[in-house]
Amino acid sequence: MRLVILDNYDLASEWAAKYICNRIIQFKPCQGRYFTLGLPTGLPRDHPESYHSYMWNNFFKHIDIDPNNAHILDGNAPDLQAECDVFEKKIKEAGGIDLFVGGIGPDGHIAFNEPGSSLASRTRLKTLAMDTILANAKYFDGDLSKVPTMALTVGVGTVMDAREVMILITGAHKAFALYKAIEEGVNHMWTVSAFQQHPRTIFVCDEDATLELRVKTVKYFKGLMHVHNKLVDPLYSMKEEN
Amino acid sequence: MPSNKSVSDAPVVQFTNCRILKNHKLQREDLWVREGKILNPEKLFFDEKIPADLQLNCKGSIIAPGFIDVQINGGFGVDFSLATDDVRPGISLVSQKILSHGVTSFCPTLVTSPPSVYHKVLPQISVRNGGFHGAGILGVHLEGPFISKEKKGAHPEQCLRTFEEGAFQDLLATYGCLDCVRIVTLAPEMKRSSEVIQELTSRGICVSLGHSVANLSQAEEAVQHGATFITHLFNAMLPFHHRDPGIVGLLTSDQIPICQQVFYGMISDGIHTNPAALRIAHRAHPKGLVLVTDAIAGMGLAPGKHTLGQQVVEMDGLNSYIAGTKTLSGSVATMDTCVRHFLEATDCTVETALEAASLHPAQLLGIEHQKGTLDYDTDADFLLLDDRLHIQATYIAGDQVWRRNTFTL
């Protein structure tokens, strides 16, 4: 794995954004050859805090993506399992995910694959763990009864199929999960640990997230920053070349 | 289940590179328009899955809801209170010219006139939507004749009336037809005003207090019977007194019914009100301030003599007085200069200045679900402005109905 440690949240975000840009440019997408970006998904559609609103406000409305190329799991579908199966099929039809970008929960989960999820799981309906409900309460005015208890999520196996995985981890409250994910063994109680067995994983974090790691680990990867920074050297986008 | 089919074949226009006035703040967002209404782009993206048909770069402009002028007596040589056989050309001329001032909807105002004028003019005016032909007409504002002699201002004394005999029937007989009437200004201290106010309000007509010597209790009683507006605050009413604030006291009165709000018109042309007084009113009750022009026929023309109903007024380019006197009679200000002057005099935010000319008049008339905002599904009447609030382009129902010569998208 690569472990990229930046000083703070903003620098970590910027690094990750530049990296994703470069990956897309290097891929040289064109008509019929799309770069498939995977992101975690979940809540019911109509809620103002739904992933649809979240993705629209934070991503889609700022870019010129064709709406037909944006696929979000629909939590209001009449047959949820069918919705999940269709989603897996769409991923296959798109040629698989080129880069999956996700975060880590305080309980070490990737997407909504809560502790105990099979490391070979596919897209399905999951009941959320109390940790996750507590973490999300802030989006629902702190009222626990308003937080959805179930969510559709890509499986650990689904993400493992991606050609590259990037995990973003910032904040001291995620430090223990990061420790469990990379310094302890592969364990279905900390599902992010599955990526130890993925050929191309990159963890991008800030200083606070490294608080539970061994000094040796942190020093080693910080020493590699000059190599990591080459990955975000600006590349000319095809728009500029033309 | 959201369908993937397009809801309409009409073109979707996306205004980009702009700051829009939304939720009382200027936000870096795009404005989406289709079929004359403001569109929700998120629904378009997820439900209809279609992109915009046309993208227009607004070059960093501010986009604000179109201005609404609820008190305008004429302009460009046109006097709405003149009894002509065909008032439509005059109204059309004014409605077209004020597009360049940012006004997308207005209430043609008639000053105190003899009943014959009302009977001739009112049936000729109708509520209509705006467009390439000009700003929309929301209805007529009748200022007088049921006003106070002591505070008649520029209104002709011989035409003043009371309704103490027949109350609402007197009013109806005077005006003739109330179909297109939106606002009536009257003096609440007049006998039987409460019944009249109640009847007008029940017919959906907004009652405004003005040209009056009412004290605060009389004004509060009027509000309790349904009055919601004050015509050009400070002008043509008793001055604020600390033991009887008069109509001005309504701004901070605690006798206003809970679900009601009092709005007040201000002519912020730098002449009708001292900037300090404007600031006092604004600070006392910022949400109720409605900018109006009270413009007269001379607005937009060179200095000279014009009419204002039965009176002759002299205009010297800035001020307008009853000929031979120092009595102010309307203004020659335009709505956009009022907005800019208000911004400068009160040092308020750009958002506040813009809302005083758009959201607040819409709220006064109870049409804020349709006009006065850039909320989804409201009418696409909006303006493109530069940072100093000069109008660059005016849109009604999504069509560009006016633009500055030097401005192109």
TrEMBL record, chain A:
GO terms for cellular component: cytoplasm. It is found in: Cytoplasm. InterPro entries: Glc/Gal-6P_isomerase, Glucosamine6P_isomerase, Glucosamine6P_isomerase_CS, NagB/RpiA_transferase-like. Gene3D superfamilies: 3.40.50.1360. Its EC number is 3.5.99.6. It comes from the Eukaryota. Keywords: Carbohydrate metabolism, Coiled coil, Cytoplasm, Hydrolase. Belongs to the glucosamine/galactosamine-6-phosphate isomerase family. Homohexamer. This is Glucosamine-6-phosphate isomerase. The lineage of its organism: Eukaryota, Metazoa, Chordata, Craniata, Vertebrata.
UniProtKB/TrEMBL annotation, chain B:
GO terms for biological process: N-acetylglucosamine catabolic process; N-acetylneuraminate catabolic process; negative regulation of UDP-N-acetylglucosamine biosynthetic process. It comes from the Eukaryota. The keyword Metal-binding applies. It is an enzyme of class 3 (hydrolase). It catalyses: N-acetyl-D-glucosamine 6-phosphate + H2O = D-glucosamine 6-phosphate + acetate. Substrate binds at A154, N235, A236, R243, H272, L328, S329, G330. Its EC number is 3.5.1.25. InterPro entries: Amidohydro-rel, GlcNAc_6-P_deAcase, Metal-dep_hydrolase_composite, Metal_Hydrolase. SUPFAM superfamilies: Composite domain of metallo-dependent hydrolases (SSF51338), Metallo-dependent hydrolases (SSF51556). The active site is at D294 (proton donor/acceptor). Keywords: Carbohydrate metabolism, Hydrolase, Metal-binding. One of its GO terms (molecular function) is metal ion binding. Binds 1 divalent metal cation per subunit. Pfam families: Amidohydro_1. Zn(2+) binds at E143, H211, H232. Residues 62-398 form the Amidohydrolase-related domain. Pathway: Amino-sugar metabolism; N-acetylneuraminate degradation. Its cofactor is a divalent metal cation. The keyword Kinase does not apply. Belongs to the metallo-dependent hydrolases superfamily. NagA family. This is N-acetylglucosamine-6-phosphate deacetylase. The lineage of its organism: Eukaryota, Metazoa, Chordata, Craniata, Vertebrata. The gene is AMDHD2.
